[in-house]
UniProtKB/TrEMBL annotation, chain A:
Keywords: Carbohydrate metabolism, Glycosidase, Hydrolase, Polysaccharide degradation. This is Beta-amylase. PANTHER family: BETA-AMYLASE 1, CHLOROPLASTIC (PTHR31352), INACTIVE BETA-AMYLASE 9 (PTHR31352:SF3). The lineage of its organism: Eukaryota, Viridiplantae, Streptophyta, Embryophyta, Tracheophyta. It catalyses: Hydrolysis of (1->4)-alpha-D-glucosidic linkages in polysaccharides so as to remove successive maltose units from the non-reducing ends of the chains. It holds the Pfam family Glyco_hydro_14. Belongs to the glycosyl hydrolase 14 family.
Automatic annotation (TrEMBL), chain B:
It is an enzyme of class 3 (hydrolase). It comes from Hevea brasiliensis (Para rubber tree). The lineage of its organism: Eukaryota, Viridiplantae, Streptophyta, Embryophyta, Tracheophyta. Residues 243-262, 392-412 are annotated as: Disordered. Keywords: Carbohydrate metabolism, Glycosidase, Hydrolase, Metal-binding. Residues 499-828 form the Glycosyl hydrolase family 13 catalytic domain. Its cofactor is Ca(2+). This is Alpha-amylase. The keyword Metal-binding applies. Residues 829-889 form the Alpha-amylase C-terminal beta-sheet domain. Residues 245-261, 392-405 have a biased composition (Polar residues). Belongs to the glycosyl hydrolase 13 family. It catalyses: Endohydrolysis of (1->4)-alpha-D-glucosidic linkages in polysaccharides containing three or more (1->4)-alpha-linked D-glucose units. Its EC number is 3.2.1.1. SMART domains: Aamy, Alpha-amyl_C2.
Amino acid sequence: MEVSVIGSSQAAICKSELVNKELRFCFPRRNSTNVSFFDSRTRWRRNSGLHFTLNAIQTEPVLSDDLSTRGCASRSKSLDDVRLYVGLPLDAVSDCNSINHARAISVGLKALKLLGVEGVEMAVWWGIAEKEAMGKYEWEGYLNLAKMVQSAGLKLHVSFCFHANEQPKIPLPEWVSRIGESEPGIFFADRSGHHLRECLSLAVDDLPVLNGKTAVQVYQEFCKSFKSSFSHLMGSTITGITMGLGPNGELRYPSYRGVVKSGKIHGVGEFQCYDKNMLNLLKQHAEAMGNPLWGLGGPHDAPSYNQLPNFNSFFKDHGGSWESPYGYFFLSWYSSQLLSHGNRLLSLASTEFGDTTVTIYGKVPLMHHWYKTRTHPSELTAGFYNTENRDGYGAVAEMFARNSCKMILPGMDLSDKHQPQGSLSSPELLLAQIRTACRKYGVDVSGQNSLVSKSPHHFEQMKKNVSGENVVDLFTYQRMGAEFFSPEHFPAFTEFVRSFNQPEKHADDLPEEEEEVAESLQTSTESSIQMQAS
Amino acid sequence: MSTVTIEPLLRYLRRERPLCRCRTKILKPSSLNFSPKLLSNGANTSFCNFKPRRPHIIRASSTDTALLETFKSTDGFFKETFPLTLTQMVEGKIFIRLDKDQNQQCWQLSVGCSLPGKWILHWGVSYVDDVGSEWDQPPKSMRPPGSVCIKDYAMETPLKKSSDGEIFHEVKINLDPKSSIAAINFVLKDEETGAWYQHRGRDFKMPLVDYLRNDGKVAGAKRGFNLWSGFFLPKMLFKAKELPSNDQGSSSESKGATQENRQVEGFYEEHPIAKQVVIQNSATVSVTKCPKTAKNLLYLETDLPGKVVVHWGVCRDDAKNWEIPAGPYPPETTVFKNKALRTPLQPKDGGNGCSGLFTLDQEFVGFLFVLKLNEDTWLKCKKNDFHIPLSSSGSLPAQPGQGQSEGALVSEKTVEANQEVSQTASSKGIINDIRNLVNGISSRRRTKKKEAQESILHEIEKLAAEAYSIFRNSIPTFVSESEPQETPKICSGTGTGFEILLQGFNWESHKSGRWYMELKEKAVEISSLGFNVIWLPPPTESVSPEGYMPKDLYNLNSRYGSIDELKHLVKSLHEVGLKVLGDAVLNHRCAHFQNQNGVWNIFGGRLNWDERAIVADDPHFQGRGNKSSGDNFHAAPNIDHSQDFVRKDLKEWLCWLRDEIGYDGWRLDFARGFWGGYVKDYIDATEPYFAVGEYWDSLSYTCGEMDHNQDAHRQRIIDWINATNGTAGAFDVTTKGILHSALERCEYWRLSDKKGKPPGVVGWWPSRAVTFIENHDTGSTQGHWRFPSGKEMQGYAYILTHPGTPAVFYDHIFSHYQSEIASLISIRNRNKVHCRSTVKITKAERDVYAAIIDEKVAMKMGPGHYEPPRESQSWSVAIEAKDYKVWEAS
């Protein structure tokens, strides 16, 4: 072979590009000496011979691009159609707009590329990109990072983060925090009046509280600026954008404080309707409903953050005030506010990026604690009016469908049997419920895991959640970092990716495939020669 | 002897200047690049390879225009010359000769090199009674003219072109036979490339006297001899001779036969050396139309020596798909795998180089080729095929598919310079595996395929391991499964933000023996000048009087004064409102005792560590710890901070210093020597009010001129700060370096980076940047990297008005500059300029730099004219002096 003679790094990259394609199809199965191959893919691969050639010459992965954008529409996907992404470190771009751990990321990207991962997810923080002053955007760090991703031949999924992060510490924009100091009402508040400075209250979506602009306007300009700065990557390298919808980017109220330790039983959380503007909205709503007294505050008999459902009378499974007319009044208002907030932001995003081929995503949390109770208090405080006798997710799915957005569901690694004893939690049932709603409204689901875990059951659960009937269009593994690449974790992840990319059929079941394997291999060999010659 | 190979080895020495970083030297034996825009940085060009391919865009770049004109003027056809850059390994020799000078009086050591380059001999001596393998500075009489002192242990002497040879460089060192010099140690450095040439990874050692005695206690020396005796013996001529001055010679009982009281008589040796040299050639392609046949005639000529094969094809459209045209072909053409043609070029008559003529049908729009020199050496056009347009319609000059935007890329892409290099390096590693894979696939043999896949998996594992180690050494970014960490309260990196530091000593301060007392008398004055932090010299017992070679950490009686005097001093400083930084030398520590091999690596005092506390990768000290997590400081055992007991002891010690002496914070010496994560550990344990690390390495230079873009340099400092989790600031060496160039050469444009921000660390992470213009190493009586003389006040005008935490050097504040510096400090304090102040650069031109800080202070420096804009606010002059001026908003 002539392949080796040009010792340029470029050559290496094009080749790894090529190799990836191969790897996707040719990983040897465990316990099998045969190369397994997959029929649904073979046709595709044959067609792709030409693409390979182009690819090799141009060093731009045109092929997978087309696939990813085209592939979305089809419903009959199998395991290896799942596009696998890996999240970049949250603080990949530092607050001075340089790239943190650039070398590690670059090496990591290479490993992922060789592994056959399709792309990476990059969190774009409001507090970094628009840090200093309203409308003063600093995209350089993100542009550089995107360029690294592009150079590595990977796709990019961008997540807008309009919230702050605890660990690593990424605050809201300085100018927003300054406004918040004099006007704390722009943040959510709990019953004790404590303001949570993690994200803006959804009540200011349409209030001109940010130097005369509404939050939605500010988000919109952020999107616009992003789009113009990244226009050269839109639809090619950047394939998807997740719109930040609330705390942790998720569509919910910040009903829990801080990070709750896993393995511990969660409390129910608190309603977050006590900031000035939320109370205003509630008051108006109550007056309009003819019950002005209900508009003075949230439920007085709800437990606080870490208390259990039965602590007070609101969430009591039987005879709790959640079932009273007041309960209905409050919960429907509370959840509808969240829904319209989600609608505002998702429609903003789909309008803003409507003229690109980029797909818009929104993230819906998996508030699985207390799912097995009648009241589902964790979901209620988070803003999902989902109880034993009311489906709260149909409306959410419908809202996603209306805006042609796809839904990201985290926690695909969580299984019921590993929940703490007595927590009445059920991630699996909740996930199934949301997926049913999505199917009903034709909303594609994307998966995420909740944490980097070394325990095998997480990977098993994820596999289960993305295979068979459980169609996902994209799976984003969270996330790259020391632990991700640690010897305790990375081999398990490698296994996981390989199982992703190979079908669960035994090669012996596909005798007629042999020729085709050889043929397609031949094709790619030729293309590599051509690359040389060209 | 001459079979010994010499490998250029990367070697970091401490604190010398210029400190050459040779990271970009990781090159393959033969690499080839062609770029139309001559000599772009390899790392950068590799970036444009990944640019998305764009359809041809006609750009109004000057090259294009010029070419289009040529094209018109030469009757519709194309001619262009492409520079060809070929990196070649050239081999030469290092000569080492020891002989007597003309008068037969003095011995002379000559070191020469037959390769072109800017050669520097980096050398030192060992004395007869030396133990260990530290170097010493040679006596003045030995130093050839042009020598530069490197700290107190080495010299740098440039090799001069000797008159007789064309490229032969040589340096001669005179030896004094009466001195007790046992050996001369040296390495050769090429300043052009920054590469160090050693002998098998060690210093060259030229023993001058057979000083070896067998009393068993100088086993360190014995070791040195054993190492080298085998190496030198065959060509060394010894002569038994009485040497009165060498009284050690009398007790002789050496091993071997008659090695008694010998002295070196003469010595000559050669070592092969290899160096990469860039060779420039060019290729010219011209296309004309044959009027008779309407075919295109393409003429290709090049001055490349030797046999050149053109590997070529044609294309019909812009997709540049290779195709083989119909014959006839030029003579000796062969078809290569039905994909391309190969035509050897014919040597030109009587000249260098060769040429070829190709006749091509009209129907083809492009001629594609690469040049093949031998099986492993190909020349491409920026890693793409050369493409020569053949038709006039829509033809563009030969451009690689994605070459257009290189200029832009070069300017954008420097932040990741490090990473790019490593990328290049490791992608070369991958290439083999990929080749295997492709081979495996093509062979259709499953076993092979499997192997290939395994090798890819192996590669993935390697990459993952690398990523893991880098990530692990930076701030943890992953979500911790068990214990969510509290965000650390960061303040030690910045103090209050309003600090102004004074370095409270210089290189001579130890001389009086009562520095603490002297400084105490100045406490009030220092405070009244506006300082609020003072950095005191290292307080421990030390092998060197300045304190940077600590021995017993708990013994605080030093040449600066006693522990009680130190306590009194700190108390007095506190009384006048000054915070006190202790100079903590944590990287290395001098031993008290020798181990059984005679190596000095056993510590005494309260921290009686042994070899396990010493890093394992410095052979001089036979450490048994782990490998160093940073660069090594070669003059003393480097402490292995990865050992829990070491860290525990050091934390205890630092806490003791805080409690016992009352230090408020730390200045961390030689922070390059160990991982910043350990620094975080120490900072967390001692909770200082302020901490600053000395992370000093070389800026980037191209051909002896400092690069405008020093992003890679400041990134390294920022990486270190990051590794400390921001718990410590760092001296802004970048800013100092850039100020040097800007002031010395009147290039004030250097003071703005491409984003219009300050170009040093202070532009990226102002709150962690401790700006300074001089310290005890760079200036004082050492002068390793002295600030341009007479320009100091401009330097202070810059750092005292800008964000970051400024540090003033003792020698400057107690000099005739005092009143000017004091004025600048008071301007800073009056306007509450702090480490995070905003800076807007309003002018950065050849002869003037101007900036407005926090919209409250305006400053300019340089001879050029500048007045702050007076539309929005009015300015009053606060200080005006030679070449700088500061205004305050009024």
